[in-house]
Amino acid sequence: MTSPDRNVRKKKAQISVYLDPATMAMLSDYAARRDQPQSMIAEAAIASFLSPDAAERREAVIAKRLDQIDRRITRLERDVGIAIESLAVFIKFWVATTPALPEPAAHAARAKAGERYDQFVTALGRRLAKGPKLRQEVSEDISGGDAIGSDAAPP
Prior knowledge:
Blueprint: H1 4-7, H2 21-34, H3 38-50, H4 54-97, H5 103-130, H6 134-137
């Protein structure tokens, strides 16, 4: 047998709250999307804000975002490191294999270099727009130089 007190619903207290128009619009839109009364959404929001673990939840959300930022920065550092090493290897190779030209030939070479540079910029633009990025081609599993130059098949 059930107690008569259990069947009696507790009456909720009513309050008046003043919201700025932007907040009211957000509340109305959210309630309409969820097909829920505005008072129920406002009550849940207030309860969440006042709950003892609200600070911990906010801290967890902030920690999660900081972890995402840390991972992005780590990838960025890796990508910049690849770019710097690629440039250094290219410059070292170019300096080692390209002899200095005598002055009459140097003028013609500079003109040709301008044309070739324009072709390079065009090709780079195409690759950046659609092609695979070098960072996608270089395996993240490669550490140091142990996989470079080895005959081992990629994973």
